[in-house]
User: Fold this.
Amino acid sequence: METLRVALAGRSYPIHIGAGVLDASDLYRPHLGSGRVAVISNPVVAPLYLERVKEALRRAGAPAPVEVLVEDGEQAKSWGALERVFDALLGARLGRDSTIVALGGGVVGDLGGFAAALYQRGIAFLQVPTTLLAQVDSAVGGKTAVNHPRGKNMIGAFHQPAAVLADIGALTTLPERELRAGIAEVIKHGLALDAALVDWLEANLDALLAREAGALTHTVRRSCELKAQVVAEDERESGRRALLNLGHTFGHAIEAGAGYGTWLHGEAVAAGMVMAAELSVRAGLLAASDAARVRRLVGRAGLPVTGPAMAAERYLELMALDKKAARGRVRYILLERIGSALVRADLDERLVRDAIAAASPPAAAAAAR
Amino acid sequence: METLRVALAGRSYPIHIGAGVLDASDLYRPHLGSGRVAVISNPVVAPLYLERVKEALRRAGAPAPVEVLVEDGEQAKSWGALERVFDALLGARLGRDSTIVALGGGVVGDLGGFAAALYQRGIAFLQVPTTLLAQVDSAVGGKTAVNHPRGKNMIGAFHQPAAVLADIGALTTLPERELRAGIAEVIKHGLALDAALVDWLEANLDALLAREAGALTHTVRRSCELKAQVVAEDERESGRRALLNLGHTFGHAIEAGAGYGTWLHGEAVAAGMVMAAELSVRAGLLAASDAARVRRLVGRAGLPVTGPAMAAERYLELMALDKKAARGRVRYILLERIGSALVRADLDERLVRDAIAAASPPAAAAAAR
Assistant:
């Protein structure tokens, strides 16, 4: 097991990475406080890992946690699901000294963390991510939210977990499509912050797709290191943290436009990164050969290199409401080279349309131009 | 005009108190940022003050704010009302650089502040309290929430305003019943923290009920001073701030038991303080003569000195879910003397029943014992 720390003064917390950490009662115990525990999960993850987590909690002194299962998939990041979690917690009379354990992927983590942020004005929570996407990205950093029909993650809070238990062993049961979706966020970390990680991915993608333990561990550790550093510098995303949204402005438009749950978040981010790279080239920032390198790596990971058949108009409409927009202008995260991103808000709309077309299916591309 | 400050490191903010502060565009301007503005109010307050606030905002460089009116009364602190606020803000495409202005009493402030806490993971907000209760208590300190059928303020967040504009002039239009409800929280501040304020209230209650400007100003200023100090010491209510919940454990049970909106919050707190004083006597902490003094002051303010005709059983049931409960034990805020409160969790249930009976209508009292 390896342990990293997210350094946030009074709210610093550990990220434990390794095979079997979800069974380690010692890792739960320091964070359970005096109250009761609720485990939030979903019907896909619970049959695989809930009993093991309950056994660890029992040994940590928290028998009989309240169990709340929410729908599988992005649809669960809803106002209604959140309300059902509150009903369950209040129904079981959980007090302000309780702890939520979020056991699952990014959706369960975002929803469980958001419930913890709001329940009785904030209780503690532990992230036990079971997908690659959650382990390398969403479980770290305290962003929690639900979606709104008008945009993704529109209603949310910053609420840091008390600890993250990233069990590499859980990745063995992950469906292939979700493994690939997680790799999208790893590629994002490399493209935005760390050229060496991109080199490593290009060299080790096959080992990663084959789920070799060493490759998985390196991937999760390096991603968490990069993310922990950025979050420690800029918890509330007033600056540098925004770079981690590379591919997300386009990606959120894809998710909302296609209907939540149609595209996996990581798939939408993958196509979004190709668009961001194309836009970077058109903005005179990135070499065309580097955009080709992005597209090649995304494609090799089995991720989409084009968005859905959606009109450029619709992208622009959805992106105008993006949280990163300021004074009505969309702020794009672009690449100046592999491993270095920046924010630009003053882009000609024609360049954006061109970039969307360059990463759209042929028919949609023709219509977009 | 007088200005106090709530000292919270990076999130310190001013409280401006005086007649006409809601017209002062200079007091809004520093807090509006670069984005747009939404004013949240209700159909009772809006006809009286919305145009004046809009005029001040216009002069501060924010013409045409989005206007959202929520229901009058405690019923508006609901999940549904919150959702309607989000729909309006997203419908008008307000970005993360927007500001919410909460114009109204405690309900509008709690709801508007909670919406600001969650909208796009948190935007700025200004409190423009128009009731005595909001000016002396709820607009200061960053507690925001909605109610849940199972308990008051169960879903919420700590989110400090950027400024509080407490216009004493607005208190001239306040219905008599609401003025008295506000006085309950002033009495609370005195009983819990400041014997001199209790002496002052006993000497000046008639001037306060007659809404003399000097009496109103003293009341708001002194209450804000006390509250600002406590909030600066203990923003998240891990210690001393809990003393400000004097009367609230019983009071929340009264509000929930009677149905939200039947009792005004201040009325429920008033009867709750009498119960807390009676319980303090029974716990051997407070002289019976001091409990009588509490009851007399509450009664002179035209506030209820007994709760509704509700069984003690029902109080205990509702209080067991109180946010201040820890490890399933209700934590009571008691008085050791006038001006000094403390927290006790180890009370014999019979004493609690007795205290409820001592401040219940005759029939309910007989049933409770």
About this structure: The first helix of chain B runs from residue 25 to 28. Chain B has two domains: 2-173, 176-368.
